[in-house]
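To whoever picks this up:

The parser on our side crashed when reading a file containing two proteins. I've narrowed it down to the boundary between the first structure block and the second sequence. Both blocks are reproduced below exactly, byte for byte. First block:
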Amino acid sequence: MILIVGLGNPGREYAHTHHNMGFDVIDKFADSLGVSFDREGFKGLYAKAKYFDEDLILLKPQTYMNLSGESVVQVLNFFKIDINDMIVVFDDMDIPVGHIKLKIKGSSGGHNGIKSIINLTGTQEFKRIKIGIGKAEHDVIDYVLSKPSKEEEVLLQAAQNDAVDALKIAIKESFNKAMTMYNK
């Protein structure tokens, strides 16, 4: 079983903001598989799906970003999923808008959702797909909680589509294959 986590903040006011790229990608991924987030539990919304004979749990934690690990750990424990079988999708300010980067391990890079997952799982070794949102020009919090400009939106839609394709390749073939294809 594979756990795919999209990070974001719950609530309408945060929908489609820079910081909710993980939610946007996992929503597109769920749509492409014909499933919806119809289950509530583990401090999140989740869906079960199947892709190329792999059982998937898709998770959108409904805690705020800095507590995302609480939801993730509950799902890992309940479904007995190995951390090596988890992929987390989230926004990254160190990557240019519209680019994606796949990594197998690393620090939080200052991302509070990743920091929470690392703290509660006790490891930095889990797969990630980062969606580039670019640097904040002024206040970081205002930037990540703002909606993208029309120009950014076009680039972010393309990045989200790439992330969905990368997820499918990671599941069907391997995460390393997806990294080779999408890390430029």
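<<boundary where parser fails>>
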Amino acid sequence: MLDTASLRVSFALVALTLLVLFYVVTYRTGRSAYAAWWCMSLAMFLTGASAYLLDGTDHQVWANPLGNVLIVAGAGCVWAGSRSLRRLSLPLWWLMVAPVVVGLFSVVDDPADNVWSGGPYFLAAMWIQLALAARELWLLLRADGSAESAERRSHRLSLWSLVVTSGGVAVFYVGRWIAFLAVGPDDPPFTTVFGGEVTTLVTTVLLATVSFSMATVSDEQQKEELRELAVRDGLTGLLNRTEFLRLAEEELRRTGQEGDLGQLILADLDHFKRINDEHGHLAGDRAIIAFADTCRSAVRATDLVGRYGGEEFIVLLVGAGPERADQVTDTVNAELRRLARDGDLVLPTVSYGITTLDHGIDLEEAIEHADRALYRAKEAGRNLVVHHTPETA
């Protein structure tokens, strides 16, 4: 059987190989946050394992605490990377707590003669951070939905692999921690079940499994981001015109047999060109973003909001009546007035054209009706809400 030093050399070589491959193949092609965190984790594990190779030499006094700090920091990067897959950030000071605590206790625990300096704190930091990583991945898996295609099934399988691997290693470190506290590092069952040889092998499996699974997840995440870019307006994040029309058609077909179809609203920012001319295009962009955010927050999750073009927006209120459409426009206008009063935004008034989606009228005809009502609102002086009626045709 290989000794601990030999296994640590092998571990370092595996970590170096995976770092190079993951950096070149995955990180450089996508520059994603999760790929960056995993590269940092591999680098930490690599340098930490290298520092441990100096145990038993005159350099152990500084190398052993350094190895503890780097390995714990690597586990923290696994946690941060798992969290970034959910598009959530992690405050830097959260990542610094465990390495700093472990480093301090390692330094004061006679590191020149004790290869397990700061051992209880090191093991606790490892299992806690790996358990947090497993939790983030589990939450991501739950939010991923059902697998509808081969790609999605492969994505979920990779997520399961990440959950099981990180969770399994976390459980392993819980066992090490309990055994360390119960019998110490020199007696069974710690030496037979949780010793350096077994741990190095387990950690090597962790690196290999997570690297390959992370590459698959990374590829799927990039594809998802590209799909999102294809259906979203780049400035506001709202549905673009094509996607809004597609989803609206689907929604109308779905609700066509269920009763009221809803209300369609076309909104146009009044005198928008004047904002660009007098205050610059940045001010115009901020006004568009503010309106989009306000409009998004005023509707339900089941409604659709899109940027129809330029300073024109379109809203589908599913199953709603005219009164609900008036409530939405009143809410949006009130919020815009508040933002203009309390902030430094230059915000225009808004004109609205509204039509009821009746049975027998297709989406294109409904949009034409709302557009006629919008034209009447602007013709009548702007900053008005006009509902389509036979008189507005």
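After patching the parser it read the second block fine. The domain at 4-231 is CATH 1.20.1070.10 (Rhopdopsin 7-helix transmembrane proteins). The chain has a mean pLDDT of 84.
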